[in-house]
């Protein structure tokens, strides 16, 4: 069974608007990345409690903490960043979210081999933190970080070799790196994919489009997920209007467009969702 969720901060900074749109699309989870114009890691204890209470009132769960952990240069200080990671893990436990999204650090000079040992060291420490606290980190493939191609994602996941570090498979991000998501990346990392980001893009341009309208091979991906009876979250991250370094924006209307697009693709494969 597919469970739909999404980055609700792409709908609006306002939490009530986020929840209204999710409810209109019968989506009962969100990926908590931002609210009231603040990243989730910037929320005060009082604000986090308010969010938790609102979510409980609306019967909406948190699928993952959409943290920016790992979205720094590999040459930046890690110990300070590790404190942010601990905060993200605490928030996951507070919101009863099973996952925390992470990245594998920007490589400033494109010399991946040079920085590989430090990337692995940092990701191992993050995985150890997650294991101690009983949560699972989801590595999102993104351009210019170490794990941007299928080969480097596989290297990272195999080398760290932890059940607490899995993959958030993002088709659009692979497209933006010139990688065919299903035919090239999925055969390498599909076995590690515990979470799917619903995002599509045009090869060569990088323009993000609704699911099925680009080169993200989402139809092929969903067919394979159906074949293997995948059960888990598919998270809408539409990015249909603008995207910044740490968050994107779509707006309520376009979020609904994105939601209906993935539902059509699921219906084509007779995949049930809730």
UniProtKB/TrEMBL annotation:
Molecular-function GO term, any one: isomerase activity
Classification via InterPro entries: IolE/XylAMocC-like (IPR050312), Xyl_isomerase-like_sf (IPR036237), Xyl_isomerase-like_TIM-brl (IPR013022)
Domain Xylose isomerase-like TIM barrel: start-end pairs: 35-239
Pfam families: AP_endonuc_2
UniProt KW keywords: Isomerase
Name used for this protein in its record: Sugar phosphate isomerase/epimerase
Origin species: Paenibacillus lactis
């Amino acid at each position: 069974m597919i469970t739909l969720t999404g980055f609700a901060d792409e709908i609006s900074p306002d939490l009530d608007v986020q929840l209204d749109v999710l409810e209109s699309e019968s989506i009962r989870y969100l990926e908590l990345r931002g609210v009231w114009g603040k990243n989730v890691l910037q929320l005060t204890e009082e604000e986090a409690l308010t969010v938790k209470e609102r979510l409980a009132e609306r019967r909406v769960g948190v699928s993952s903490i959409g943290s920016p952990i790992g979205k720094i240069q590999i040459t930046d200080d890690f110990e300070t960043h590790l404190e942010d990671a601990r905060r993200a893990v605490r928030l996951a436990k507070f919101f009863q979210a099973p996952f925390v999204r992470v990245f594998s650090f920007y490589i400033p000079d494109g010399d991946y081999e040079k920085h590989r040992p430090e990337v692995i060291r940092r990701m191992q420490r993050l995985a150890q933190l997650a294991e101690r606290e009983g949560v699972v980190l989801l590595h999102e493939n993104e351009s210019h970080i170490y794990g941007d191609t299928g080969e480097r994602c596989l290297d990272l996941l195999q080398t760290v070799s932890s059940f607490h570090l899995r993959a958030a498979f993002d088709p659009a991000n692979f497209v933006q790196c010139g990688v065919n998501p299903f035919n090239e990346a999925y055969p390498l990392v599909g076995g590690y994919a515990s979470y799917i980001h619903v995002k599509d893009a045009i090869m060569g341009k990088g323009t993000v489009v609704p699911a099925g309208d680009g080169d993200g091979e989402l139809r092929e991906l969903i067919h394979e997920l159906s074949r293997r009876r995948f059960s888990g979250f598919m998270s809408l991250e539409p990015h249909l209007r603008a995207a910044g370094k740490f968050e994107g924006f779509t707006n309520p209307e376009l979020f609904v467009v994105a939601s209906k697009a993935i539902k059509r693709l699921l219906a084509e494969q007779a995949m049930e969702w809730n």
